[in-house]
Amino acid sequence: MGIDRRKFLTIAGLTTITTLGKKVIGNPSGGDEVVETGSKAVKRWAMAIDMKKCRQHEGCVECTRICHKIHNVPDIGNSKEEVKWIWKEDFEAAFPNQHHDLLEKEVNENSVVVLCNHCDNPPCVKVCPTKSTWKREEDGIVMMDMHRCIGCRYCIAGCPYGSRSFNWRDPRPFIEEVNPEYPTRTKGVVEKCNFCAERLADGLLPACVEICPEKALVFGNVNDPESEIRLILKSRHSIRRKPVLGTNPQIYYLV
Amino acid sequence: MYDAGKIILGILIFLILATSPFWFSKATGQADYLPDPIILTKDTPGKDLCVMPTEYMRSSHMELLNDWRNSVVRDGIRKFTSPDGKEYKKSLSNTCMDCHSNKTDFCDKCHNFMAVEEQNCWSCHVEPKEEL
User: Fold this and answer.
1) Cα dist from B44 to B79, B80, B93, whole Å
2) What are the tens digits of pLDDT across the range B73-130?
3) Which end of chain A, N or C, is surrounded by fewer C-beta atoms within 10 Å?
4) Which stretches within chain B are classed as H helix?
5) Do A185 and B126 make contact, defined as CB atoms within 8 angstroms?
6) Where are the domains of chain A?
7) A29 burial class (0-12, 13-18, 19+ CB within 10 angstroms)?
8) Chain B from 96 to 115: CB within 8 A of any A CB
9) What topology is assigned to A5-27+43-254 in CATH?
10) pLDDT by residue (tens digit) across A180-216?
């Protein structure tokens, strides 16, 4: 007699796990993987945020203001429907793993600038059923194609950083002054920071980096060992948001 | 055939009535209506030509726009070189509408006539402000 049902299922299950296991679970050491320095020709945009410098300006939201202005991000005025690309978050909320009650007062009580981490291993990309979000091979930016987004919001569920917002309604009436050079979004699509891909294409720095009065944001190519960002990361201690999740976020926070 | 006269008359009346929309529109000239979009050009030298020859734009602008959309968003190729060697930024709002700033008289005229749904370009892309 051949194999019985129980045996068949066991074998099938084991085969699936062994062949797909690595793909499904991902690299177990993913979180600690240092940026691949394989080819210098391939850029890898990343950002370092100097939390000390950022703290100097209490209540400064210049980065948010300029970003939301040029990208036509609406101000819905309702936290349930708000749309945001870059904003300030409490330290505890941004770094739940690194927080404890006895932290320095300045760190604990000040908010941190957060935005899309442009992960090297982005979970939002894995879950997108239409490939409307993907990681650009040439520079690592996690891009969005609004033309393809069907508004399923899997990516919002997938992103561990809350970097993605959904347009619950037509955003147009909530945009104070529409910037004609950049499209708005429409009801039913997800949006997030695009690392100013449109400005990078023109050889400009991201708007938040450019406007920061304290020059607390450093943007650059981490695949280039001589870049400003690599030098600063070498000389200062940096942390990242939820690195244990294995997403390999590319926003570095200088403590 | 009984009542042949009445039947033939009836058939005639029916035929006239059934084809009346055609006669009517022919008589009023509506059948010959063709939309005539107003093509604006910039007075600036060098900008008086479109990115592609007029004939091509007339027949295939939708393919060009589709191609621009995909290549900009998916491949990051934002520059377009026209057959006469000029370089343009691939942008609906900033390049196309920079010259063709009259959406109502340009895009809408034909699209409405042909009942083209423009894939909702304008629910996201910002159209130039028109003086009404």
Assistant:
1) 21, 20, 19
2) 999 999 999 888 888 999 999 899 888 888 888 889 889 888 887 667 899 999 888 7
3) N
4) 4-18, 20-28, 54-75, 97-99, 103-113
5) no
6) 5-27+43-254
7) exposed
8) none
9) Alpha-Beta Plaits (3.30.70)
10) 999 999 999 999 999 999 999 999 999 999 999 999 9
| All residues at 6 or more sequence positions from B81 whose CB lies less than 8 Å from its CB, including other chains | B87, B88
Which residues between 16 and 75 in chain B have a beta carbon less than 8 angstroms from any beta carbon of chain A?
A: 69, 73-74
CB hemisphere CA count around A232 (13 angstroms): 22
Q: How far apart are CA A118 and CA A122, in angstroms?
A: 7
> If DSSP codes are grouped into helix, strand and coil, which group holds residue B93?
helix
Q: What is the dihedral of CA A76, A78, A84, A88, to 10 degrees?
A: 130
Virtual CA dihedral for B111, A175, A208, A46, nearest 10 degrees? -50
ipTM above 0.85, yes or no: no
